[in-house]
Every structure is written in structure tokens, then in C-alpha cells.
Amino acid sequence: MIKSELVQRIAEQNPHLYQRDVENIVNAILDEITEALMRGDRVELRGFGAFSVKNRPARVGRNPRTGQKVEVDEKYVPFFKTGKEMRERLNDGVDHGEDGDDED
After folding, report:
1. In this structure, are residues 20 and 8 in contact, taking their beta carbons and an 8 Å threshold?
2. Other residues' Cβ atoms within 10 Å of the Cβ of residue 98
3. Which of 26, 33, 71, 81 has the fewest CB within 10 Å, making it most exposed?
4. Nearest by Cα to 91 from 99, 83, 79, 103
5. Mean per-residue pLDDT for 52-78?
6. Do the Cβ atoms of 29 and 22 come closer than 8 Å?
7. Radius of gyration (C-alpha) of the chain in whole angstroms
8. Which long-range contacts (CB under 8 A, 24 or more apart) does 27-31 make?
């Protein structure tokens, strides 16, 4: 699902809201999450999950084509950990059989 589809679904579920207002709300939420991560804060949405930032230190990497060593700069990457409720909902009714076939 892409952001425009999310906005459309929320607007359909809430006919009393204009689609442009829903889009502004979704953008505001995503912007606030981004700003918090840029400050180094952790964003936790109970039942959904937590966003945080992890530091990847500088290292010496390798170009897979040439095998040549390459310096890789330090960087910060976003990290998302699902909440317990989401994990349970995603795995509810999942068949854990050996053959990977859902039909029995």
C-alpha cells in the first residue's frame, strides 16, 4: 500500500472528512515521526510498533563486482520493531506446517 491508497481508504471509512484533510493529517503524522527520529527520539505507537534510529559505524566494505575495498561512512538508519498486538494479528491463523501448503 502506498500513501495515497492509505489516504483514500481512511477517507472512504470517514465520509465526514474531506480527502485533502485526511491527506494533511497523514502527512502531519509522518512528518512528526520523521522529525522525532531526526532528533534521536524513539516513537512508540502502542499496539503497532516503535520507530527508532540505529547507528551504523564507519567500516571498510567491499565492492562486489571488483572486490576492491571501499570506505563506507558512518550513517544513521531508521529501525521499526512491531508491537505485540500487530505481531499477533499478523500471525493469527498462520499455518506452520512443514510443506508450506495452506490447504490440508
Report:
1. no
2. 5
3. 71
4. 83
5. 95
6. no
7. 20
8. 30/3
